[in-house]
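Quick one: co-fold with pyridoxal-5'-phosphate.
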Amino acid sequence: MMEKENRKLSKSSHLPLYQQVVVYIKNKIISGEWPIGSKLPTQREFAKLFGVNRSTVVTALEELKAEGLIEGKMGASTKVVNNTWTLLANTAPPDWNKFVKTGFYKPNQSIVQEINKAESDLNIIQLGKGELSSELFSVENLHTVMHRCINRIDSLGYEVPKGLLPLRQELSKYLSTIGITCSPDSILIVSGALQALQLISVGLLRQGSTILLEEPSYLYSLHIFQSAGMKFSSLSVDNQGLIPSDIATKKQRNQSIIYTIPSFHNPTGIVMSEKRRKDLLQVCEKENLPIIEDDVYRELWIDTAPPLPLKAKDRHGQVLYIGSFSKTLSPGLRVGWLVGPEPVINRLADIKMQIDYGSSSLSQWAVAEWLSSGLYAQHLRAVRGNLTIRLHTMLEALEKYLQGIATWNIPKGGFFIWVKILPAIPMQKLFETALDEGVLFYPGSIYSSACTQYLRLSYSYASLSDIKQGIYRISQIVKKLM
Amino acid sequence: MMEKENRKLSKSSHLPLYQQVVVYIKNKIISGEWPIGSKLPTQREFAKLFGVNRSTVVTALEELKAEGLIEGKMGASTKVVNNTWTLLANTAPPDWNKFVKTGFYKPNQSIVQEINKAESDLNIIQLGKGELSSELFSVENLHTVMHRCINRIDSLGYEVPKGLLPLRQELSKYLSTIGITCSPDSILIVSGALQALQLISVGLLRQGSTILLEEPSYLYSLHIFQSAGMKFSSLSVDNQGLIPSDIATKKQRNQSIIYTIPSFHNPTGIVMSEKRRKDLLQVCEKENLPIIEDDVYRELWIDTAPPLPLKAKDRHGQVLYIGSFSKTLSPGLRVGWLVGPEPVINRLADIKMQIDYGSSSLSQWAVAEWLSSGLYAQHLRAVRGNLTIRLHTMLEALEKYLQGIATWNIPKGGFFIWVKILPAIPMQKLFETALDEGVLFYPGSIYSSACTQYLRLSYSYASLSDIKQGIYRISQIVKKLM
Ligand SMILES: Cc1ncc(COP(=O)(O)O)c(C=O)c1O
Ligand SMILES: Cc1ncc(COP(=O)(O)O)c(C=O)c1O
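Sure, here it is.
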């Protein structure tokens, strides 16, 4: 219920500690921040939050109970039942819980919510995050880029629907280097690749549409398409990528579309071969199936670049191509792009205007400058070198500690190693114990219900020593659970 | 279909002009940017785009027709029917038009799309834009702010779900100055106020819910709630704001919620009186109705600040409070906020993570710095002074040119004057003629089907001379149409 910022109580206050807890909770209730019906944190969470004993918390809760503000068994199910106003006025406030439960969107999987929280905990070794380490972020470059672009900014007004023109022009140039011919008119700037998927789901597909995709896939960890009433249908995959011969049988009578991550697949790391790309396009042309190509990891190769995008060989405007600066530069910029046939881009630009009136101009200017100054290309080279070292460190640690009890692929790029734990141990337990012992990874079950024996380890974020330490700790837990 | 960037042809090329047009269109078709089935721009649009005669365009289109690439009567209905690949391969590409038509979201009203386009035309006098003039944007302040905040940034990673903590802390302080007590935990950073509405529509309300609201209202110009399957029910309004006695009868058996813009209403400019605010809260408490308070214009007062927000008197967590930096600082930052009970904020933060993984960190840092440095407060003072001058200029022009043929309110803040044209002239015609003659305003019909005789004039954006000139031209057209 609350975020994990520490709220330390004052030892020197004239109020005893438990009274400070009472005051804190009362303020939350009186201000309406914790309205009637809301669940209180557990005693354990309170104790951690304030850095006090559980007994102090119990005393505080007893007092609030006596005042008639909260009710319920101590522990998980304590709820706010009154606030000082309702005690006075005897009226009932809106039942927000009912609202919270009825919205159109499903909540994130609870394990994803738990991960979201643990990811901001500095004491945890982060082997989950799909994000570059901050050591790869150059504050100096940010300075240079901002300094240069501010001179081009005369105001930060509402942008044209497709996004900042100088950025789309730079992107059009960049895309030609990977074989994609498109004018700025066919590019839509989005707030990250995720928003591109969101726009496609509400702007192009109807309820009951079918998404054909690799399994496991990043897309299984999201709700975007399911929330919009669509179904998933999995395609077989081998080490060359998805197997196109499967498609004809899987395609549904209703609207269907393919989603694929051909380069450095999340979570498996697989790169779709040149030949497969050709075959896939051919089958889709024949079957009249559009393709969403999610290519956010393309530039993060170790030794050689992956084959050109599907979009580069797309002769009919069959492919919607998605890219992002999140993985290569900084996710906090929230800048990605979508390339497609102009009528499709126009439609999605119109919807983006309805949803958020465009992405941050400041971010768009910054990225445009990063591209035009050449600093982006330079940064990519540094990132590739650094990721190579990280990957090797993780591979060494895996060999040293998990040899014989796990298998894994050797990725040619991207951020992740997809690890299969061989002994049949309870993986939920592994996840929880590791988290308790300060190591966070993503369980494979997020990406496919068939992948419970897998974990996704990221080598992009943690320090080299944390990578080693993290894998060591995981190996110890696995051995204990065997 | 295309954006209005100019593509000048080369007079010195060895290719004749019409051939250059052919090549341009062919490239669009071959690259898949204009897939089969897409509508070509009209001859007139092409001519304008390339700066050539219509006869040149006609010759080019005839050639493409002869090659079998396009078909249809010349003019509006010319379509792409083949591309060089399909001519060769005889396969059919995906029918994107079908996709474009089937998405979940409705397209923007065509008049809104037309306005969106005209707003980036520098030759038009902009009396529509709800946005500060760029003369009020201080590049110097942007420099200062960016310089200071870059020193606090060590990387731009994915943000915590509710948004950058230093920004939420600054907002919590700011909000206390307008009577709202809330901790950073009860604040969600959003990509503009529009996104707050979007999140509420998909995160809290179910299909078939009813939104009670003022009519006319900004909300009528959007599709967010209707796209999510909700209904509108209008409440009566007088010059004190909406009339709460109406609510009990309008409330539906299904889920209902109130949407209101109590301070400097868009488009009417009305400020809800202190007494009305109290009554409204009381009725909503009794009826158990939650309220969305859209307060984006609050700080833009002329002589005196409006009464405290409804949220300031909210004792039960009944009110969701929405604010934004779009109107006061810069819309291109895309930073707004939502304040509400913590469980509601948690739920909406989770959905925001599903939709776009948070707002631009760069923008969030910039705004946090604007607040903490005091530059924001200073900027607001300058803005108020400037808006006062603009308002008076517009009022003078109205008196000079529209006296007797129109009536209007005298706003106490915000950006808009709500003008009623007295003679029964065809307003669509007024809008179109004005646009042809280089003046853009928003027709009242966008905000209510009952307000066809109204126009919304914005004094925030155009220069003082453009304001006078624009109103003069409107008056001339009105007189002609009488
Ligand atoms: C395959 C894939 N697509 C899209 C995204 C979303 O990235 P962005 O930050 O650009 O929204 C991710 C990141 O998690 C990803 O792994
Ligand atoms: C009443 C009202 N609410 C919300 C908005 C959206 O503003 P933002 O740019 O913060 O999304 C506007 C702007 O048009 C508005 O007039």
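If it helps, The CA atoms of residues 390 and 464 of chain A lie 7 Å apart.
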